[in-house]
Design brief:
The structure holds two protein chains of two kinds.
Chain A (H helix, E strand, L loop, with lengths): L1 E6 L8 E7 L2 E7 L12 H4 L3 H5 L7 E4 L2 E4 L2 H17 L4 E4 L6 H15 L4 E2 L7 H10 L9 H5 L3 E5 L3 H4 L1 H12 L3 E6 L4 H4 L3 E4 L5 H14 L14 H8 L6 H12 L3 E5 L6 H17 L9 E4 L6 H6 L6 E2 L3 E2 L3 H11 L20 E5 L3 H4 L6 H5 L4 E6 L4 H4 L3 E4 L8 E4 L4 E5 L12 H11 L9 H11 L6 H4 L7 E2 L25 E6 L8 H4 L6 H9 L5 E3 L1 H7 L6 E5 L4 E8 L7 E5 L7 H4 L4 E8 L2
Parallel strand pairs in A: 6-7, 6-15, 8-9, 8-11, 9-10, 11-12, 15-16, 16-17, 21-25, 22-24
Antiparallel strand pairs in A: 1-2, 2-3, 4-5, 4-17, 13-14, 18-19, 19-20, 21-26, 23-24, 23-26
Helix pairs in contact in A: 4-19, 4-20, 5-13, 10-12, 10-13
Chain B lengths: L5 E4 H14 L1 E7 L5 E5 L25 E10 L2 E6 L6 E7 H15 L5 H8 L1 E6 L25 E5 L3 E6 L2 H9 L4 E3 L2 H17 L7 H9 L5 H8 L7 H5 L6 E8 L2 E8 L20 H12 L2 H7 L9 H5 L6 H10 L5
Parallel strand pairs in B: 2-6, 6-7, 7-8
Antiparallel strand pairs in B: 1-9, 1-10, 2-3, 4-5, 4-12, 8-9, 11-12
Helix pairs in contact in B: 2-3, 6-12, 7-9
The chains are: A alpha/beta, B alpha+beta.
Bound molecules: iron/sulfur cluster (2 copies).
The site of one iron/sulfur cluster has 14 residues of chain B, from helix 8 and helix 11.
């Protein structure tokens, strides 16, 4: 039995674990006691990480579509077919695009960008989950004067005050939830914000209810409370630039005694941890939310303070890395503006070809719009906001090239399928929510003819005329170090004996810049607002859905509720005269739907939540928005 | 068999291990990444570490692997052919700690009674345990409360004690005695002063256990007489993150699921580790789940581990005091913490 230390492939906490393998198949997982993040502790996903690679439907040979069916072929044929089709489309002036993924390594994501902006000469490169994370980061970075989010989960655990803008951390980011629980046990004061009283909310000193989409509004209220204090302890000694304009912008916001209390706690804290769960909604709103959060940290003296942490939580594993590699239509590798000349010149030198610097299509904009699409390790219906409905648009693609370890629904729809290693056989690095870049190490060989993802992407790029100089994933990482400033030290630092390297210094003394906050309420009309729960469904992720142990809860819920479900507080249910399992009709300005209800004691009255897994069911009612006012009535 | 005690010079241990490796797979604690210690099959005697706190992942995996193939299922014409998988490879688990040796004896009893479990027994019967007594208590252990250490009177084939220049080896079973005899003159009979030293070390080790007590008896009384307030389970359940780690690293946990793995045109029916803390553990095919609430699952875990019913059956609580669940818990609901809560009728987070 072999046992190889690697990085957990699921959420972005960045736990480390040993994958055990025998006869070339992963058979188990062992924790690493000394790893600085996980310290021997894993969540259920981590403990079962070996299962999907061993039990899943693995791709072992390249496949091409012939007469409507996928048939095995050689790598040469598959690459040639992909080249010929994509080239024809480009020559005909049609749009092509590339999707990277939070399930892929930094090296693969970087090569996806190189493939798009270098070989295919398009700016349409993105990943679906970016929209739930990067806008928040953009908002934070603007206040922090370019400083990337900083702090560690160890900081959070040592904090005396913690503010959690949820999601449901116990499910989405268990190791982060652990840090919070440990801090609370040690006496830290916890405040949670959200539309549900989740597990962490029940441990909190105070829970601040916020309607879906109104987290930013609530945080702006906290800022208003903080700047109204005459001289809050812990606040910076002299007013920060922009302070007066900020104060003016929030002066009219209502400030409750609760908000005042929380602002005071935060200002008095020696070390504060602020955890920002992923959020849905229009990007401008998320940028505003990020701005409000960083402003709150700045005016209470915690932004950049050593020991204090402000961490937006990527919805899935390597989302932070994918963004930093430049899997974004509007920024270059290293989150550098498209128009920045030095960065463009540097890429041109390293690639031997100037990068396409056009603003491209977003992930959600690509299906149905681009004629050619290369998808690396992304199962589109699992992550697209439109869910299964996206398959129809995907079906219109003239050339769909999919690189994956598993036969996902996206791979089934492809014209060319290139089999690549799963995380258990892969090599490269991934970046955690802390900005810790850690190795993925192979515990087994890729099955059959599957190749390492970095190699498959390089070969595809070479077929398209942009040759590659890499002999290993490490060569790719070295090149990343040349073009992504924050990764300059990483290429050497993640040597095998280390526990990973941080992309950015944990703190520096850059002074924040305050700006006026625009805090608009997004949901005015009550009594009820309908929203999706979360922004990502683990049950659709191949590493969960193909794991016999991890898929059970999700599969059973789908069996029990084939038509979907809506969660409702008991008070709302009593008001409508309905019971658990009965159906209600939900109607908005956009449409209506009947759904069975599931009673949820954690939910604020007036909030109706549909699990993200069932988002197609309410697409018509939501009308493309992330939350809408609805009326609900009992189905007779 | 105490009077059969022998000693081996530390210089000769490598030779002994090399001899063992010629006829068995030798599994021992080795240095892994960055200070981690893990049990693994060794390829050279030098890999074995002697100075270590117990590994977080227990050696149970070598008799009860996380993925355990039981039967190969093949199509044969119109029928189905079944071929049991039996792993009777000879193994020596070397330098395992007292609590772990004790746990393997527990697991053996469990798998041998009622319906004997052939796959398990094939492995377990071909394992020889060479345990290393603990002269210094480990940081979080409470083996003294479970009669599972720091030294053992039974449950191991050979017990080693580190005497400095030498190791004292006490055979605990005929198998152990035979193993020592086969090693020939690498060992010599222990001198009386060496045996005295061993007893002193045991006394010192027991004294070194300070406040690490786990009050199983009073907890068991409360569990078995229905004197645990029902709300307690609900309160505690908010401090558990349902990772299953407590079960996976518990050297006495053995619950499993059964799944079929496709492999080169056939199917392999596997036993895989499962956790009673997972919601789907008791999920029924109808979709009904008798223990849907996490509170009920935590309750179930402790009603198994520390109830009189199982104590009478197994002769011990379902815990050897290794302290691993304290280290692995993603929440704070480890064995000592919950036992204390049961005893006091209150939870302090
Ligand atoms: S908390 Fe996240 S990184 Fe850690 S084991 Fe769980 S899924 Fe993996
Ligand atoms: S180890 Fe702790 S958090 Fe994990 S399931 Fe067990 S009691 Fe719950």
């Amino acid at each position: 039995m072999d046992s190889v230390l690697t990085t957990c492939p699921f959420c972005a906490c960045g736990c480390s674990l040993y994958v055990q393998a025998s006869n070339g198949r992963p058979t188990g997982v062992a924790p690493s006691e000394n790893h600085p993040v996980s310290r021997g502790r894993l969540c259920a996903r981590g403990w079962n990480a070996h299962e999907a690679p061993a039990w899943g439907d693995r791709l072992t040979r390249p496949l091409v579509r012939r007469g409507g069916r996928l048939e095995p072929t050689s790598w040469e044929n598959a690459l040639e077919l992909a080249r010929a089709s994509l080239t024809t489309l480009i020559e005909a002036g049609k749009d092509v695009g590339v999707l990277g993924s939070a399930r892929a390594t930094n090296e693969e994501n970087y090569l996806a960008v190189r493939l798009a902006r270098g070989a295919l000469r398009t700016g349409s490169v993105d990943s679906f989950l970016r929209a739930t994370y990067q806008p928040l980061v953009d908002g934070i970075v603007a206040v922090a004067n370019g400083r990337a989010p900083a702090g560690t989960l160890a900081d959070v655990e040592a904090s005396d005050f913690i503010l959690v803008l949820e999601g449901d951390l116990a499910n989405t980011h268990p190791q982060a939830a652990h840090a919070v629980i440990k801090a609370v046990k040690a006496g830290a004061r916890l405040v949670t914000v959200g539309c549900a009283r989740t597990q962490l909310a029940r441990l909190a000193a105070l829970h601040l209810p916020a309607l879906p989409g109104e987290r930013g509004f609530l945080v702006a209220g906290l800022v208003a409370a903080a700047v109204a204090e005459p001289e809050p302890a812990g606040s910076p000694e002299r007013p920060l630039p922009g302070f007066e304009a900020l104060r003016g912008s929030v002066a009219a916001l209502p400030v409750s005694e609760q908000l005042r209390q929380v602002a005071r706690w935060l200002a008095q804290a020696t070390r504060a941890g602020i955890l920002v769960g992923p959020d849905g909604g229009p990007p401008e709103r998320l940028v505003r939310e990020g701005t409000a959060i960083a402003t709150l940290a700045a005016v209470t003296g915690h932004l950049g303070r050593p020991g204090s942490a402000l961490l937006p939580l990527p919805a899935r594993g390597n989302l932070r890395g994918a963004c930093e590699m430049g899997v974004m239509p509007h920024l270059l590798p290293g989150t550098i503006p498209l128009t920045e000349a030095t960065a463009g010149a540097r890429l041109a030198r390293v690639w031997g070809r100037a990068p396409a610097s056009a603003l491209g299509l977003t992930a959600a904009g690509m299906p149905g719009r681009v004629a050619g699409l290369v998808v690396h390790a992304e199962d589109v219906p699992a992550v697209a906001p439109t869910g299964q409905d996206v398959l129809e648009a995907l079906g219109q693609t003239e050339c769909l090239v999919v690189l994956d370890a598993f036969l996902t629904p996206t791979a089934r729809a492809a014209h060319v399928v290139l089999p690549v290693a799963s995380f258990a056989e892969g090599e490269g690095t991934i970046t955690s929510l802390e900005g810790r870049v850690q190795r993925v190490r192979p515990a087994a060989r890729p099955p059959g003819e599957a190749r390492h993802g970095w190699r498959a992407l390089s070969e595809l790029s070479a077929a398209l005329g942009l040759p590659f100089p890499y002999r290993s994933a490490n060569d790719v990482l070295r090149e990343i170090g040349e073009v992504v400033p924050a990764y300059a030290a990483v290429a050497d630092g993640t040597r095998d004996e280390a526990w990973g390297t941080f992309t950015s210094p944990p703190s520096d003394d850059r002074e924040p810049t305050l700006r006026p906050l625009a805090a608009d309420r997004v949901v005015a009309a009550l009594p009820a607002v309908l929203a999706l729960e979360g922004v990502f469904d683990w049950g659709s992720d191949p590493l969960v859905s193909l794991s016999p142990t991890l898929c059970r809860d999700h599969v059973s819920r789908r069996k029990l509720y084939p038509q979907g479900l809506v969660q409702m507080s008991r008070r709302d249910a009593d008001g409508l005269g309905v019971r658990h399992g009965w159906s209600v009709r939900l109607a908005s300005a956009h449409g209506e739907v009947a759904l069975p209800i599931v009673l949820c004691n954690e939910l604020e009255p007036g909030v109706l939540l549909v699990p993200y897994a069932f988002r197609e069911r309410v697409a018509g009612v939501l009308g493309g928005r992330s939350e809408v006012p609805v009326t609900a009535e009992k189905v007779q | 068999m105490a009077n059969e005690a022998r000693t081996i010079s530390k210089r000769d241990v490598a030779g002994w291990l090399a001899a063992l490796m010629r006829r068995a797979e030798v599994i021992a604690p080795v240095a892994a990444h960055g200070g981690d210690v893990a049990f693994a099959a060794i390829s050279s005697p030098e890999q074995v570490v002697f100075d270590f706190q117990n590994s977080l992942h227990p050696p149970k995996q070598f008799v009860l692997p996380q993925t355990d193939p039981l039967v190969v299922i093949r199509r044969n014409g119109n029928g189905i052919e079944l071929e049991p998988v039996r792993d009777a490879h000879p193994r020596v688990i070397f330098n395992l700690r007292s609590c772990d040796a004790r746990s393997l004896a527990f697991l053996y009893r469990m798998h041998a009674s009622d319906l004997p479990d052939g796959a398990y027994l094939a492995r377990a019967e071909n394992v020889t345990l060479v345990s290393l007594a603990c002269t210094v208590p480990c940081e979080l252990g409470f083996c003294t409360c479970c009669d599972a250490g720091p030294f053992l009177k039974e449950g191991t084939d050979v017990q080693l004690t580190d005497l400095g220049e030498h190791l004292l080896a006490e055979p605990g079973t005929d198998k152990g005695l035979a193993m020592l005899s086969e090693a020939g003159d690498l060992f010599r009979p222990a001198r009386p002063d060496e045996e005295r030293r061993r007893l002193e070390l045991e006394e010192a080790a027991k004294r070194a256990f300070g406040a690490e007590t786990c009050h199983f008896a009073s907890a068991m009384r409360r569990v078995s007489t229905g004197r645990v307030p029902e709300e307690l389970w609900g309160t505690m359940s908010d401090w558990c993150l349902e990772c299953g780690g407590c079960n996976f690293v518990c050297p006495t946990c053995y619950c499993f699921s059964v799944k079929d793995m496709k492999q080169d045109g056939s199917w392999v029916r596997c036993r895989t580790w499962d956790s009673c803390q997972y919601q789907a553990f008791t999920l029924e095919a109808s979709g009904h789940n008798p223990r849907e609430r996490r509170a009920d699952r935590i309750k179930r875990r402790f009603f198994h581990k520390v109830s009189a019913q199982y104590y009478l059956r197994d002769g011990t609580v379902g815990c050897v005091g290794c302290g691993r669940c304290v280290r692995v818990c993603l929440g704070t609901t480890d064995m000592p913490a919950v036992v204390e809560a049961i005893r006091k009728g209150a939870w302090n987070g």
